[in-house]
Amino acid sequence: MKKAIFTLLLLLPLTLLAQVTGTIRGKIIDNDTKEPLGFVTVALVPQGSKAPTAGCSSNDDGTFLINNVKEGNYTLQFSFVGYLTDSRSVSITAGNSKRNIGTISLKSDKKMLKEVVVTEQRSQMSFEIDKRVFTVDQNIASTGGSASDVLADIPSVEVDNEGTVSLRGSESVTVWINGKASGLTSDNQGDILQQMPAGSIEKIEVITNPSAKHSPEGTAGIINIILKRDRKAGYYGSVQGGADSEGGYNAGGNINYSSGALDAYAGFNYRNMEFENEGTTYTRYFGNPGSYQNQWSNGTHGPNNIFVRTGLTWRFTKKDEVYANLMGMYGKGKHKNNITAESGQLDSDGALGAVTERRLRSTSQEGSPRMYNIEVGYTHRWSDSHFIDLSFGHHTWQQKRDATYRQITEYPLSAGTSHNSYQFQDGENKSSNFEIKLDYEYKIDENNRVEAGYKADFSDDDSPVITYTDEQHTVLDESLYNKFRYKQETHAFYGTYSGRVGKLGYQLGLRGEYWNVRTRSFGWSDEQNGTLPGYNSKDFFELFPSAFVSYEISQGQEVQLNYTRRLRRPWGGQLNNFQNISDSTNISFGNPNLTPEYSNAYEVNYIKNWKNHTLSISGYYRTTTDVIERISYSQGKVIYTTHENVAQTQSAGLEIIGKNRLFKILDLTTTLNLYYYKLDDFKYTIYGQEITGEADENFSWNARMTASMMLPWGVTMQATGRYNAKRIVAQGHREPSYSVDLGLRKMFNKNWSLSVNVRDLLDSRGWNSVTSNKFFYRDSESSHGGRRFGFTLTYSFGNMKAQAPKRKPQEMPSSGYDDYGGGEM
């Protein structure tokens, strides 16, 4: 029955292809300069109606095209900030279905150019059939915060207290900056996002099922962070400064310049933050007799860093341009943590017996992260729809981290005796990445397009760790001496073909990837004896197909079916078998035998637009094999945690997003994500320990609502509330959580604005997880940061002219066919 319904959905559009539709094209120029105007809004309004049924934005050369226009009489309306609105009448008939209305000259609105005052809110979310775009540069709640704070406000995205990002409940998600990996890996992603200033971000793109054009990394999809780089004619910029209730402060500025041949930008930000964290853990060890441990922790985390960006684009002919972009970060941070643990035996009835051992452990870490990313490229355009782009990128990340561990163990407690221990760990993570990328795109005609490309990626990660047991750092702990090297080389080719027949759009794509992974880990005796092990080398080759089908039910209403194959590769830290001893009773280490996990993802999307309302419904189903999960076991009272390819999973869900504008002053964005997750049972043996996990399944959900309201006196209010229901993971589950953020912004004039916000208004943001197996039961709860009040004062300046940007190459391209309003294939 299900197959019959699915076949019917695919065949239904073919019965409707005979309807007569037409196209409308033209070109828009500046009435005074005669230069083409891009990004002009073109609305198609049926005569006798006030609401547009279709539309698009003009291209860089001023041209526009609207496809699939039904027979009838229409009014074309042209509008753009700084210009007077204009209109033209046009008709589509069976005998004249391809209309070219010629050149439209827009006149400057002299009065508006003198002073522009913001009088209404800009939409914070836009829908495209293959992605959601969230404009965040006006997000008040995250002003003065970090990129992690911005991502935490995006529907269906979560960020935990360690900076790990998940999408639709899955941590297997790829995060990009400006459409590229930019050196972000699972090793350093949390550090970089928590130190990247929120003020440098323009918008976030969420692509849940990317086509073969994009990397298959991340089974849940791609999150693309687009940094600010407006290209309005003239020069303009802003400076800002702020502080918060916990002693943190920030300052920054940016400037942009754009002319006919040259675009340039530069930005600078400094952040000095202070966070407090605390946690409690109860562990029960099974045995005869059983035992227990109660643990309390508290600490501080104080990162401070400088973040800089600069870039230049030079169009030296009408068809050729070169560009260069640089991003860098330098910082220092201190982390202190204190742990108190008390343990004892369980009584015969399972009650806690007397405390027999107390352990006091203090950790002090100092780190100095450094990062830079440089990209240079060349683009040749035969036309706006026929171009080739070649780029080279180089990224380095270096994190120097020194950690001091002091521990006092009182055992037996009744005897009053104690034992002191000291450890100093000198660690460093150095990674570099070089990328070559070639993309070609050619629109054959109005209904057919091809894309092809090649990408090479070379990564090298070096992570030495040396441990001493005396305060003079002369006595080496040979068992905790480790040098780990991780190298990966990837070569990928892709090709896609997109077409449209009437209201039916489609795209077929195939990506082939070959990659080689080489790892090596050795200790003190290996180095001293000259018996260094060789590299453990693994070669892989996989094909990743994608298929998309879309059908336009009517103007403003579209449905899409798609399929992609994706993977999740284990990252460097997951492959390093060196043990992390920051908590002596909770030791973690990697697994060099991990292999990638693979998934097949299916998705159906439906979008309906009204004048002031938008509804998006997405149903998805994903099967994953060789799932990489975190598993734990115990030896005595020490719990060891590592990663394994444990089992297979199935995920299915329904994501509903509604965007509503009410009473002209209130914007509501509501997201409801319902999902089902099933994990198969598994059994493994690690270091003589048999690790098991029972099959489990559950239904879970999360919801989020963001409300933005225009208040009197130039004040904007924004509130975001979120709730995450209980969710299962390997060997346990995560408890429900909720939080609320609130912000206010006051515009004093066109130059000055003041933002006031509070993160975690209810002081409820935390994480509670339960882990259970045949060895132990653990209930752990932690929080990071807590309620925080902040303010930011911003001053804007410049002689910005009302002219469209030339191009926006940083944005993620679509899957290959435009949404219903764009018209072009």
Key descriptive features of the protein:
825 residues; mainly beta; 22-stranded antiparallel barrel; 4% helix; disordered C terminus
Describe what is shown at a glance.
With 825 residues, the protein is mainly beta. It contains 6 helices and 44 strands.
Give a written overview of the molecule.
This protein has 825 residues and is mostly beta strands. 4% of the residues lie in helices and 63% in strands. It contains six helices and 44 strands. The strands form six sheets. It has a 22-stranded antiparallel beta barrel. A five-stranded mixed β-sheet has the order 8-9-13-14-12, with no helix packed on it. A four-stranded antiparallel β-sheet has the order 3-2-5-6, with no helix packed on it. The longest helix has 10 residues, at 2-11.
